[in-house]
Design goal:
This protein is an alpha+beta fold and 351 residues long. It is built from 10 helices and 18 strands. It is 28% helix and 23% strand. Helix 2 packs across helix 5 (158-171), helix 3 (104-124) runs antiparallel to helix 9 and helix 3 (104-124) packs across helix 10 (331-338).
Length: 351
């Protein structure tokens, strides 16, 4: 039987259940790192259970030859309920969430984060479905079968990429992240604006391991690191007034915008619009922007947003992880960089 993960649901946090907004959200068809830029719904907090969980060794498959292979995960895949060994599930997650062209240590870091997120979800569950996880990145983690993923990769690279991902899973077999002895909420995103963001800032709930840290990626290594979105002035006015009726959006749109507020890392957290303070995360959600790291300006015809990075900005930056790997950092160093105060743990051996 599979390794059992029991949840102790004593506290409730208002946090997102989805990780979403990964590099592959931009490149779902392959490893070109370009494509759709639609933001994930994980920008809007949902209710999640506490991190409190314990791993029991009472039910372990004696025939499993890996630590991951001894754990079974129940997942909703294409609407069907499936039970998979953890290592098989993780292959599909890493393949779906990070390009196999990335550095090996970055792929290993992704494997650790995905394994940790999976254990967290197995312990805490979700109100969205009975299964521990699903393959919708707007709800849980993305997942692709080997057949789907290999068909999407260039034929000349498919076998090499598949082996790289398998190695990332095997080389980190059973390794996950804890905080205060429990699996943590290992969210991640595609690219930050030089610093990651805290869970408190983005979702209004403080988690000590999801705080702002420096992230080394920049426009030299990240496609579409800077983006520009233009909205007709009338459409912007209508959208803002529907949410913030006290905003004064009369007169010249150039005068609609006031001072921005910044966090300790220098990232914008709110912007004064028509005399009302609006969180940049809210503006991002309202106008389909790639990131809450933004500025805005108005003209008579339009409002223009200037945006840096992609994703909610909390947890591990995937491009940042790749940059750190290029600098010679190990997977363990990368995840401990992004999840402050976390510790590495390993699933128990099968008895």
């Amino acid at each position: 039987m599979a390794l059992a993960v029991a949840a102790l649901l004593s506290t409730v946090f208002l946090l997102p259940l989805a990780v979403g907004e990964s590099v592959q959200a931009e490149a779902a068809a392959g490893d070109t790192l370009t494509g759709a830029d639609s933001p994930s719904s994980s920008a809007v907090p949902e209710e999640a259970s506490s991190l409190a969980a314990e791993v029991s060794t009472e039910e372990v498959a004696p025939e499993a030859d890996t630590l991951d292979g001894a754990v079974e995960v129940t997942v909703l895949l294409d609407g069907a309920r499936c039970t998979l060994p953890l290592d098989e599930y993780l292959w599909g997650v890493v393949a779906a969430e990070m390009p196999a062209a990335f550095q090996e240590e970055a792929l290993k870091a992704q494997a650790i984060a995905a394994r940790t997120y999976t254990l967290y979800r197995m312990a805490s569950g979700t109100d969205s479905h009975e299964e521990a996880l699903c393959d919708d990145p707007d709800c849980c983690q993305a997942w692709l079968s080997r057949e789907e993923r290999m068909a999407a990769w260039p034929e000349e690279n498919a076998e090499t990429y598949a082996e790289k991902i398998a190695a990332a899973i095997a080389d980190t077999d059973g390794v996950y992240l804890t905080y205060a002895g429990e699996p943590l909420l290992a969210v991640f995103h595609a690219s930050s604006g030089g610093y990651t963001r805290s869970a408190l800032e983005v979702w209004g709930q403080e988690l000590p391991y999801l705080v702002s840290v420096a992230s080394p990626e920049d426009d030299s290594g990240v496609p579409n690191y800077y983006s520009v979105v233009t909205v007709e002035a009338s459409a912007f006015q209508e959208a803002v007034l529907a949410e913030y009726p006290d905003a004064d959006l009369s007169g010249d749109p150039a005068d609609w915008f006031g001072e921005a507020a910044y966090d300790e890392a220098g990232l914008p957290v709110s912007l004064e619009v028509g005399g009302v303070s609006i969180a940049t995360a809210k503006l991002r959600a309202m106008f389909g922007l790639r990131s809450p790291t933004l500025t805005a300006e108005g003209t008579e015809e339009a409002v223009t947003f200037y945006v840096t990075g992609y994703g909610h900005g909390v947890g591990m930056s995937q491009y940042g992880a790749n940059a750190l790997a290029k600098e010679g950092r190990t997977a363990e160093e990368i995840v401990l960089w992004y999840y402050t105060g976390a510790e590495l743990a390993t699933l128990p051996m099968a008895e």
